[in-house]
Write a structure and sequence with these properties.
The complex is a heterodimer of chains A (349) and B (285). With 349 residues, chain A is an all-alpha fold. Chain A is built from 16 helices and two strands. In chain B, strand 1 and strand 2 (132-134) form a beta hairpin. The chains are: A mainly alpha (349), B mainly alpha (285). The interface between A and B is large, with 38 and 42 residues.
Chain lengths: 349, 285
């Protein structure tokens, strides 16, 4: 007759097996991570260094935008301090690399800590206010970061910090082609981690806080803590993007993070709309991608970004995610119509 | 110190004047119009083109500049604000950011990003107040700002349009039910705000570096001024502008480190909002 300890052990083992099985990567997950990684890595050998550089900048921009997406579209909060949250970690990493002969690659994680701390500070200032006043308070926080830190010689030097060559564990990353896979890993890693986070208890709690803070509180959700967590998460991702910026750009100045950049980030997440991260990636490509790749003096290059922003918003106020859901719904209808064994009338039903 | 304070007060008049236009739109639509500065900037460039380059009489050139800005306000309402009615306010505000970018792109391509000469609409040697040389255009800006405040109060509280405007601001659905044409009120509001933006930009253009970005640079301070005034009070916004300008004068006098003024003002605004989350002045309807 088995004793109670054996029964407990067997039950624990079966629960553990179940847990591990549920965390085992499925084919869908492998495809979600693997396919974009392979595609992004395949771009490197077939493009010029200039194009690859722009792609890397766009990927880092998207990482920071994903953080703001969680804050705005999931938590229902707002921040106009995002440029400062990317810029300050970038400048700190660059300064430390320049002054102490340290590799910017080894220093990049410091960016996450700085971004996280900045997120906590902005959350603390935004805590007392609500609605549009959050816009102004966070704008003021961004302005304070911009005008205080970005003007200090002890942080920005004489405007052109000379960075140490990137290396990690004895390996040198001497060319843009060598650094690019790291940026791809940072991008894919942060997108996937955010996706998992939003599928978790935290994501559901944030949605409840956004739709009705009173109901959320009644359900036992600590609303101020979740609001603060959203700011800190956005700050951490901004810090991650900023921390890797010196590694990728090799030259960082305060001019790279003007206050207006915060408006661009906000425009990206609003154009993305509530819902999937895919919308953010599309919006980043639409707004920042146009700016990066079509920069020049041509008529189309100059007007395309603002016009695309206005048209997308007025045609699809729910953003690209709404557009995606609409297209997805229509495709599902078309596929349903041609599915074998169904009469044409079934699709409508 | 007195000179810094007085100089700051005149600077504050500029912030207050721009803030008045922001509040006019906010009261009715409950959104912050981020394109306000650029709408005015285009009007100022049209004015400068007509007055300085085409020798049009001053009054006609000022009228044309104001009309262009008012028209831009109406177009913004029709193309961006109206289709987004009922959407989250953040979406509408980002829409105005799109308009702002579009107008900036146009101005940079049409007039070049480089600063250009702007002649003050009223010239003269000026006079001294407490050791500060005050130029006639500064006095004119103050007089115009006060006149706009008085005119707005008159329109708001003594005309039928003002009644409809206040009703729409309080509850647009209820106003529509009792026969107020909310769309027309909204369009009228944007036209008034556009005209104020144009007039402000024309007056301010000769007091700062006149380039495509001159109003964008003032917008943040104007926004802070509007906010200090509680966002719904035009007199509060104007007073907020003067308060901000004077604070700027004092901080600039005490602390000349680069970026100190802006950083201190930002901290000041944050502190005010943390202590009084709804601004310094209560809403007025």
């Amino acid at each position: 007759m088995p004793n109670s300890t054996d029964t407990r052990s067997a039950s624990f083992a079966s629960r553990l097996r179940e847990k591990l099985r549920s965390h085992r990567p499925t084919t869908k997950t492998t495809l979600q991570i693997g396919l974009p990684t392979v595609l992004l890595l395949l771009i490197a050998p077939i493009t010029s260094d200039v194009t690859l550089f722009k792609i890397g900048l766009l990927l880092l921009f998207a990482v920071a935008a994903v953080g703001l997406h969680v804050l705005v579209n999931w938590a229902g909060e707002l921040s106009l301090a995002h440029a400062g949250m990317v810029g300050l970690p970038a400048l700190v990493v660059a300064k430390l690399s320049s002054d102490h002969n340290l590799s910017p690659l080894e220093l990049a994680p410091i960016g996450i800590l700085i971004g996280f701390a900045l997120g906590a500070v902005v959350a603390a200032t935004a805590r007392r206010v609500s609605g549009l006043y959050v816009t102004i308070v966070t704008l003021a926080a961004g302005l304070a970061i911009d005008r205080f830190f970005f003007t200090k010689p002890w942080l920005v030097g004489t405007g052109n910090l000379k960075l140490t060559a990137p290396r990690l564990a004895g390996l040198e990353f001497g060319s843009i082609q060598a650094i690019y896979p790291i940026i791809v890993v940072v991008f894919i890693g942060s997108v996937f981690a955010t996706r998992r986070l939003l599928d978790s208890k935290l994501g559901r709690a944030l949605l409840t806080v956004r739709s009705d803070p009173t109901i959320a509180q009644a359900q036992g959700i600590n609303v101020p803590a979740y609001r603060a967590a959203a700011y800190m998460f956005a700050g951490a991702l901004a810090g991650l993007a900023g921390g890797f910026m010196p590694l990728w750009a090799q030259r960082v100045t305060p001019d790279s993070f003007p206050l207006e950049l915060s408006f661009t980030y906000l425009a990206v997440v609003v154009v993305a709309g509530r819902g999937s991260i895919n919308g953010v990636l599309g919006a980043a490509l639409l707004i920042e991608g146009f700016r990066q790749f079509l920069s020049g003096t041509s008529f189309i290059a100059a007007y395309l970004g603002p016009v695309a922003l206005i048209v997308t918003l007025t045609r699809f106020p729910g953003g690209l995610n709404q557009f995606g859901r609409m297209i997805g719904g229509q495709l599902a209808g078309v596929v349903g119509r041609f599915r074998p064994g169904r009469s044409p009338g079934d699709a409508e039903g | 110190m007195e000179i810094s304070l007085l100089n700051g007060a005149f600077l504050g008049v500029i912030y207050g004047l721009i803030a008045i236009g922001l509040v006019v739109v906010y009261r009715v639509t409950r959104i912050i119009n981020f394109a306000h500065g650029e709408i005015g900037m285009i009007g100022a460039f049209v004015f400068a083109d007509l007055w300085l380059d085409h020798d049009l009489p001053l009054v006609l050139a000022v009228g044309a500049g104001i009309a262009v800005s008012a028209l831009l306000g109406v177009i913004t309402e029709f193309v961006v604000i109206r289709p987004l009615r009922g959407q989250p306010r953040l979406t509408v505000m980002v829409g105005t950011l799109g308009v702002s970018s579009l107008l900036l792109v146009y101005a940079v391509r049409r007039y070049s990003p480089r600063p250009r000469f702007a002649r003050p609409v009223i010239e003269g040697n000026g006079f001294e107040i407490a050791g500060l040389l005050v130029r006639p255009v500064q006095i004119l800006t103050l007089v115009v700002a006060l006149a706009i405040l008085a005119l707005l109060a008159l329109v708001m509280f003594k005309s039928s349009f003002g009644l409809r405007l206040r009703a729409t601001a309080l509850d647009s659905e209820a106003a529509a039910e009792v026969g107020v044409r909310v769309g027309r009120v909204s369009m009228g509001t944007w036209a008034i705000a556009g005209a104020i933006a144009g007039l402000s930009a024309i007056l301010v253009s000769s007091q700062v570096v006149f380039s495509a970005f001159f109003m964008s640079r003032l917008m943040l301070r104007a926004l802070a001024a509007a906010l200090l005034g509680g966002l719904t009070s035009v007199t509060g916004a104007f007073a907020g502008g003067i308060f901000l300008g004077m604070a700027e004068g004092v901080i600039g006098f005490q602390w000349i480190a680069p970026g100190a003024v802006e950083a201190s003002l930002a901290v000041l605004v944050m502190a005010v909002l943390i202590v009084r989350p709804k601004g310094l002045v209560a809403a007025e309807y």
